[in-house]
Amino acid sequence: MLKIDNLSCQKGYNLLFKHLSFEINSGDILRITGTNGSGKTSLLKILAGLNVQEQGGVFLDNHAVKSEIYQKEIFYLGHLSVLSGELSALENLEFLTGLNKSTNQVQLIKALSNIGLKGYEDEYCAKLSAGEKRRVILAGLFISNAKVWLLDEPFTALDSNGVAIIEHRINKHCEQGGLCLFTTHQSSALLNQKVLAL
Ligand SMILES: Nc1ncnc2c1ncn2[C@@H]1O[C@H](COP(=O)(O)OP(=O)(O)OP(=O)(O)O)[C@@H](O)[C@H]1O
């Protein structure tokens, strides 16, 4: 269970949210909604341990956000690309999944193929389109062992086929006991999603 307890977040003079408390259980899909600047990215970054909250706590099965156990269980997909343009798609994926020693190269190549990047393994990421770069990162998400997926605008730059793939994978991940929190300004066909409005 992911527990958010009495969270407050201030940016400059702007109080984005306060006394925010909720719980997400295995199998839950939570869509975080709100206008531009309402604090969706700030909240996801706090849940990823990348931003520090003003007040309150974040726990996964009683493990605090900065703990090693918590950090091993999350995958954060942010706005900015974490890919190096000077490395190939496969090399970037190796780097992204570097902490997961159980993943071998055959699995990485299969993950790229599954996301529509068969034949792109040795292509430098600098040469890939925005949607193709996004797919390389999503390949990393799909083969990660992370239980909690924190996805900030996961559909950005993806075509309709890419959106369908990620929606299918989110549903499958949560059916198998995972958790997913995501933001989007697009409509989404995800099943049984709960909504948190900021
Ligand atoms: N490092 C920072 N310093 C000061 N203000 C910040 C900082 N980061 C974000 N903000 C402000 O906090 C507010 C919330 O930003 P955030 O990115 O969380 O919003 P959002 O809901 O994700 O927006 P969008 O829908 O546009 O992606 C914005 O007004 C932004 O300008």
Structural class from helices and strands?
Answer: alpha/beta
Helix content: 25-40%
Silhouette: globular
Q: What's the CATH first level of the domain at 1-73 and 148-157 and 180-198?
A: Alpha Beta
Name the beta content range. 25-35%
Count the DSSP helices. Answer: 6
Order of helices and strands: EEEHEEHEHHHEHEE
The unreliable regions are: none
Global mean pLDDT: 90
CATH architecture of the domain at 1-73 and 148-157 and 180-198: 3-Layer(aba) Sandwich
Measured on Cα atoms, how large is the radius of gyration? 17 Å
Strand runs, count: 9
CATH homologous superfamily identity of the domain at 1-73 and 148-157 and 180-198? P-loop containing nucleotide triphosphate hydrolases
The end-to-end span amounts to 21 Å
User: What would the CATH topology of the domain at 1-73 and 148-157 and 180-198 be?
Assistant: Rossmann fold
InterPro entries: AAA+_ATPase, ABC_transporter-like_ATP-bd, ABC_transporter-like_CS, ABC_transptr_haem_export_CcmA, P-loop_NTPase
Domain ABC transporter: 2-198
Protein name: Heme exporter protein CcmA
GO molecular function: ATP binding; ATP hydrolysis activity; transmembrane transporter activity
